[in-house]
Write a structure and sequence with these properties.
The chain is 45% helix and 12% strand. By secondary structure, it is α/β, with parallel strands linked by helices. A six-stranded parallel beta sheet has the order 3-2-1-4-5-6. Strand 4, helix 9 and strand 5 form a beta-alpha-beta unit. Helix 3 runs antiparallel to helix 4 and helix 4 runs parallel beside helix 6. The longest helix has 24 residues. It binds magnesium ion.
């Protein structure tokens, strides 16, 4: 079917944001008097759990922490504080778009494509990243944003992509998804979407079976190539 929309993941796909998330988590833990430190190796493991609140819950359950009960009760509060800290870092310019993203988005828009976001990250995080990097309201760039807790089941479940498709009013067969992680790829595939993977810093060793194509980034990807990648 004719290509009508591109749907993007955010973290690791639009920008390499995971180190900024990790920093925001660690600084927030410290603010709450929690003696937790998520180093790179641990964070790489924790990224298999999608969603910040879910990641903290997993971390608390997996470790016999002395302040475990208090920590469980604080998850929502910590997450809200972490989101605030993260968006401050993004507004300060901590994350730039990955190579080729700005150009492809502009080209697709010019060609009349619909553009959408399907992410497990919280809406304020998405809005901050778009606002800073495009210098305009998120709605000026993306027709649809499906984010965070809007769906019951996070990636690799297809829910957030199905929500984006419903808001677009389009079938998966006329869309392409862009992802950087195995969980994200599974989510998009489970929603019936052809998916292009751009490998990111934390996803290098992951399994991308089923991807349309696996690329280092979108630097050399132009809009006119996309249909060819779908085999049309
Ligand atoms: Mg991602």
């Amino acid at each position: 079917m004719t290509l009508k929309a591109l749907i993007f993941d955010v973290d690791g796909t639009l920008a390499e944001t995971e180190e900024i998330h990790r920093r925001a988590f660690n600084e927030t833990f410290s603010d709450f008097g929690l003696d937790w430190l998520w180093d790179r190796d641990l964070y790489k493991e924790l990224l298999h759990v999608t969603g910040g609140k879910e990641r903290m819950r997993y971390f608390i359950e997996a470790n016999s922490l002395p302040d475990r009960d208090r920590a469980f009760g604080l998850i929502a509060e910590i997450h809200a504080a972490k989101t605030s800290r993260y968006t401050s870092l993004i507004h300060a310019g901590a994350a730039r778009l990955r190579p080729g993203v700005r150009e492809l988005v502009l080209e697709a828009k010019t060609e009349g494509m619909k553009l959408a976001i399907a992410t497990t990250t919280s809406l304020p995080n998405v809005e901050a990243l778009i606002q800073v990097n495009w210098g305009t309201c998120p709605g000026d760039i993306f027709d649809v944003i499906a984010a965070g807790d809007e769906v019951p089941n996070k990636k690799p479940a297809p829910d957030v992509y199905l929500l984006a498709l419903a808001r677009l009013g389009l079938e998966p067969s006329c869309c392409i998804a862009f992802e950087d992680s195995e969980n994200g790829l599974k989510s998009a595939l489970n929603a019936g979407l052809d998916t292009i993977v751009t490998v990111s810093g934390y996803s290098r060793d992951q399994d991308f079976s089923g991807a349309l194509v696996i690329l280092p980034d979108l630097e050399k990807t132009v809009f006119s190539q996309l249909d060819g990648m779908r085999g049309n």
